[in-house]
Specification:
Layout (H helix, E strand, L loop, with lengths): L16 E3 L2 E5 L2 H12 L4 H15 L9 E8 L2 E7 L9 H6 L18 H12 L4 H4 L1 H9 L1 E2 L2 H15 L7 H7 L11 E2 L2 H13 L2 H5 L1 H12 L6 H5 L4 E3 L2 E5 L2 E5 L6 H11 L11 H21 L10 H4 L2 H8 L18 E9 L4 E9 L7 E2 L4 E2 L30 E5 L2 E9 L4 H13 L5 H6 L3 E5 L2 E5 L4 H9 L3 E5 L7 E7 L5 E5 L6 E4 L1
Parallel strand pairs: 17-18
Antiparallel strand pairs: 1-20, 2-10, 2-21, 3-4, 3-11, 4-7, 5-6, 8-9, 9-14, 10-11, 12-13, 14-15, 15-19, 16-17, 19-20
Helix pairs in contact: 1-2, 2-4, 2-6, 6-9, 13-14, 13-16, 13-17, 14-19
Length: 535
């Protein structure tokens, strides 16, 4: 039978998922089911989240890898914890060295943008502090898929095949393993084709058996550093041995009675909070699908984003206090700039990146919002031979402007685009939410919160609703599902409107809310192959 697996001639609608004992939501069904399996084996939400996170590099390598970074917001026993597991740049790198190489902007491929990967340490840290099962058991579903293979899903196949020309064109010894691991006869996998990677299975089992110590202070670290030294990278053994994830206090703002939480800088979750602070002083119309509603959300978002891009960096070098950026005084100042016409702030360059998001919850009240990323698709283009570890290019978030708080230097965290979100009300957890996608992420967070709080949408509606993305200046991307009259009126207000035929740039989200009945309801992204797996 012949058919196009990418074409759907009729619109489809998902309904909310409901559960009593647990739920795992993410962008690929196999990863969600890996988390569900661990719940069924006696694990809690945190074990399930780690199982899902470990599986995603195997089943969705287009967006993350075994060399990713990660962040998490964790609700346990009535308290919210934040984990920043974004790695630092190698000690040996510097602005002067990159300028001497002739770099005009921060490179996005090769060793220059590769920081110490944080995701494996995040898995171990979450598992050891909050989990119930041994890490070796938790990562086994991922290892099984890597060893025995799985059928590639439609969205993953699309982005994989799209990436192949870019990555196979890279010149240099360091890029050859990427082609060996991720192509077959020079091509990416078709929908339904089997992909397996035994080296990933061995790496995952090594991480599980050593609680990730092998990755930072053992055999896996030696392979990463050895390949770096062999092919012109910056890493030394000390870069890994001296690095650890950091537990942080989440930042928050109250939006119309709900407390919205994000990870503090170096992530840009603060952008969503700043935009909500500006927006809450504006009156939104009763109907979301109006030009006025879109205009006010867009303008609030633009003003917040401009400042976040200017000021967010590693907290050690960030001169502008987070408290000021989240203050009512700041919000009022920025809000006063919003009128009926589109404003033209200092330009930025948002784009969609390579990231995966997941959330999980269980019947004990545990909840987790977790995000993991290689950044730009497959990342740096470097895969460590014998391991299947594809390394992120999160260092691309650094600046080469010596006056910037975010300028590249050794041992520093870059401006980071991946952000998990969490919602509370009156001191109780409502639940985790997130929208992946580079600079779309805080924009997606703001839109999800507005959908839920202002327009009383259920979790699935929040994700189904049409989205917009600001990409700099007055330029706005709208999904093709946005009513044409809204697009025309926004154009009359001075917005430069682009209507997208492909919604891949609008991010992919997941949500789990806890109900008054102590049950769980969830939504999963209609723009990908996602699933809300229930128990």
């Amino acid at each position: 039978m012949e058919f196009d697996p990418q074409r759907y001639r009729y619109s489809s609608k998902r309904t909310m998922a409901v559960a009593t004992r647990g739920m795992v939501c993410t962008s690929t069904p196999l990863a969600a089911q890996a988390g569900l399996r661990i719940l069924q084996e006696g694990g809690n939400a945190f074990d399930a989240a780690v199982a899902t996170a470990a599986c995603l590099p195997v089943v969705e390598p287009t967006s993350n890898g075994l060399g990713s970074d990660a962040f998490a917001l964790i609700w346990s026993k009535g308290k919210l914890y934040g984990l920043n597991s974004s790695g630092v740049s190698p000690k040996a790198i510097s602005l002067e060295k990159l300028l001497a190489k002739g770099c005009k902007t921060m490179p996005d491929m090769g060793w220059d943008p590769v920081d110490v990967p944080g995701a494996p340490a995040a898995w171990a840290e979450i598992n050891q502090r909050f989990g119930r099962l041994p890490l070796s058991q938790v990562v086994e579903p991922a290892a099984w898929y890597a060893e025995h293979g799985y059928a590639v899903s439609p969205t993953v196949s699309k982005f994989w095949k799209r990436a192949v020309p870019r990555f196979t064109a890279l010149q240099g010894e360091e890029f050859k393993p990427w082609t060996e691991y991720f192509t077959k006869n020079g091509k990416g996998p078709e929908v339904g084709e089997i992909f397996r990677c035994p080296d990933m299975a061995k790496t995952l089992r090594d991480i599980g058996a050593t609680n990730a110590e092998s990755y930072y202070r053992g055999a896996l670290m030696e392979k990463i550093v050895g390949f770096s030294k062999k092919t012109g990278g910056w890493f030394t053994e000390d870069d890994f041995a001296n690095w650890h994830p950091e537990w942080v206090t989440p930042i928050t703002t109250n939006y119309k009675g709900y407390d919205v939480y994000e990870i503090p800088p170096n992530g840009h979750g603060i952008t969503a909070l700043m935009a909500l602070n500006i927006l809450k002083g504006l009156e939104l119309p009763e109907n979301r699908e109006t030009a006025e509603a879109y205009h006010k959300m867009i303008e609030a978002l633009k003003l917040a984003f401009i400042d976040a891009k200017e000021y967010v960096s590693d907290p050690k070098t960030m001169k502008t206090p987070v408290e000021w950026l989240l203050s009512e005084e700041y919000a009022a100042q920025r809000r006063s700039l919003i009128g009926d016409e589109a404003i033209d702030p200092k330009p930025s360059d948002p784009y969609c990146g390579g990231t995966v998001y997941l959330c999980a919850a269980d019947c004990e009240g545990n909840m987790i919002s977790y995000i993991q990323s290689n950044y730009r698709g497959f990342g740096s283009g470097i895969v460590v031979p014998g391991t299947g570890i594809s390394l992120q290019n999160r260092g691309f978030g650094f600046s080469l402007d010596p006056k910037s708080d975010n300028v590249i230097e050794g041992g520093k965290r870059p401006y980071h685009t991946i952000i998990p979100g969490f919602l509370c009300k009156d001191g109780e957890a409502v639940g985790p939410f997130g929208v992946m996608g580079g600079f779309m992420q805080p924009q997606g967070h703001m839109q999800v919160v507005v959908n839920a709080v202002d327009y009383l949408m259920n979790p699935q509606e929040c994700l189904d609703a049409p989205r917009f993305q600001w990409t700099g200046g007055k330029h706005i991307q709208l999904e093709h599902s946005v009513d044409l009259t809204i697009a025309l009126e926004l154009k009359e207000r001075g917005h430069d409107i682009e209507i997208l035929s492909d919604n891949g740039a609008m991010g992919r989200g997941q949500i789990i809310w806890r109900t008054p009945y102590n049950t769980l309801i969830g939504g999963t992204e209609p723009r990908c192959d996602g699933q809300a797996a229930v128990f």
